[in-house]
């Protein structure tokens, strides 16, 4: 029972982060299952089974708050489902340790770009609302779905920074569309794991516990995305991407950094991330004050000018 409560709380926290920042549910939940001794394939299968429910609830909540671009969902979600199914059935048994650092370098570069762009400049408008082409979204979905199935998470970490970096969507719509399309990815990955593994190693009770926590957090996260300023949201997402992928690189065989180096890096990264978010908040408030000052004052009802009348 204690394990189920811990998993439910982990599912709640993971979905709160995922629904607010567009990533981390799969990575967080899979990491926890691996920590308690579940093998990688079964951990990924259990998490994706829970994600069928959490992504459906998250997508519905994001749609309710106007955070979803359905054209993007279709163009990225269907290729993502194909990639997830292939990853689960064909390649889930292969080690991704060699590919993981390479992917982290790519994501780190995207994360730095997103963090710097949204921290030091306002939401870019020249490209905003321009349509994203299928030739960009389809390969992105295929790769993100493949990584998600083979790594136990990755749909958000791959898809969110790429869409943010395009500058063609508001951050809240990027997050809402990525979370909504993840439902297709979760269904396809679950079918792939059932086809390749059967039910061996999949703990339905653990999946249910993760699901319960995620269902509670989904509407809260969608509401947060609707109300957090885009500039601040972009800085928050960029920081998560940077910290997550630097952590992967520090732990990889490429660097194999000592514990002292790892923890010192964490302290510095979190301090810089907090400073970036603080700067974004201050700049947002400043821009808001300037916009309010520039608006013409509306006359009060009792101050309306009247036409002068002639005497007599």
Automatic annotation (TrEMBL):
InterPro entries, per the entry: TM_pro_TauE-like (IPR002781), TSUP/Inactive_protease-like (IPR051598)
Q: Give positions of region: Disordered.
A: 291-312
Please classify the protein's predominant subcellular localization into one broad category. Answer: membrane
Q: Where are the transmembrane segments?
A: 102-125, 178-198, 204-225, 232-250, 262-281
UniProt keywords (A-Z) are: Cell membrane, Membrane, Transmembrane, Transmembrane helix
What domain of life? Bacteria
User: Could you say which protein family the record assigns here?
Assistant: Belongs to the 4-toluene sulfonate uptake permease (TSUP) (TC 2.A.102) family.
PANTHER family, per the entry: MEMBRANE TRANSPORTER PROTEIN MJ0441-RELATED (PTHR43701), MEMBRANE TRANSPORTER PROTEIN YTNM-RELATED (PTHR43701:SF12)
Identify this protein by name.
Probable membrane transporter protein
